[in-house]
Design a protein that fits this description.
By secondary structure, the protein is of the alpha+beta class. It contains nine helices and eleven strands. The strands form three sheets. It has a four-stranded mixed β-sheet with strand order 1-2-6-7, with helices on one face. Strands 5-4-10-9 form a four-stranded antiparallel β-sheet. A hairpin with a 6-residue loop joins strand 1 and strand 2. The longest helix has 18 residues, at about 170-190. It is globular, with a radius of gyration of 21 Å. The two termini are about 30 Å apart.
Length: about 270
């Protein structure tokens, strides 16, 4: 059986482990590709039905949980616009460790980047299951994050709504709903590198273990509360650049390319 504390930020639940051992359970952690950590039978007192639902468990006891994991499949491709950078300028950009410094340097040169494509076509398809503009919207959100303007999903959505990337009678309402839908899809079923059919795996919702030990359930029956929780309590985070191969400008054919990747965590 795995240790009670396998990774930094993990926490111990002795009573739970004793119970797990008694039923020959080898691990309390679901596979990373699985959205449902536990399946529970729920009794509906109104209809008298007993239905089994899958729930994802997120804890606020240790480090903030990850909602969306970065990988090589989640890179977004941007092209350098306005003019070609010199090799010295590329080297200077690549030499900065902080992305805010990288973008401050680009802007000081009068240069910007423009979204070109999603590196992985399956992930691009999954994003467009929300709306045809979702790849462009998500790419712009990532750019706003790396420019250092905000990190909370709710704040970044407001900024992107004012950017003109979509054109509706109310961009704020439209994008807020679409981003909520995307977060719900990620939470309950969609993974980047598997073609998503639109079906939810975690059909019940989320179980949140709060810092004070209280347990809160956001059931998908109460869809509005669930979607609002996801929108108000998530933020972008920077994954490993070397592991996922992003953050450096390089030449490809006649273009200069920058890949950006991200992950989404819960806010404690």
């Amino acid at each position: 059986m795995k240790s009670k504390k396998d990774t930094d930020g993990a926490f111990e639940l002795p009573d739970t482990w004793r119970f797990a051992e008694s039923i020959s359970c080898q691990s309390l952690k679901a596979k990373s590709r699985d959205k449902a950590d536990i399946h529970l039978m729920v009794h509906d007192i109104m209809s008298g039905r007993d239905d089994t639902f899958g729930f994802s468990i997120k804890s606020q006891l240790g480090s903030p949980s990850t909602l969306f994991n970065a990988s090589g499949a989640t890179n977004f491709i941007y092209t350098v616009t306005e003019r070609m950078l010199t090799q010295n300028e590329i080297d200077t950009f690549n030499g900065f460790k902080l992305f805010k410094k990288k973008f401050e340097y680009l802007h000081s040169l009068g240069v910007d980047i423009e979204f070109d494509d999603v590196d992985n076509k399956t992930f691009d398809f999954n994003l467009k299951m929300v709306t045809s503009e979702m790849s462009e919207v998500f790419a712009e959100m990532i750019k706003v994050y790396y420019e250092g303007k905000a990190n909370k999903i709710s704040e970044i959505t407001e900024i992107v709504a004012k950017s003109g990337i979509v054109n509706t009678i109310n961009n704020g309402i439209y994008l807020k709903h679409k981003v909520k839908t995307l977060l719900t899809n990620i939470a309950l079923g969609m993974v980047p590198n598997t073609l998503w059919t639109g079906d939810y795996e975690a059909t019940g919702g989320y179980i949140i273990v709060k810092e004070d030990g209280d347990v809160v359930c956001y059931h998908i029956y109460n869809r509005n509360a669930f979607m609002n929780y996801m929108f108000d309590n998530t933020r972008f985070d920077t994954p490993s650049q070397s592991k996922h191969g992003f953050g450096m400008i390089y030449k490809k054919d006649s273009c200069q390319i920058l890949k950006l990747d991200t992950q989404i965590r819960f806010i404690k």
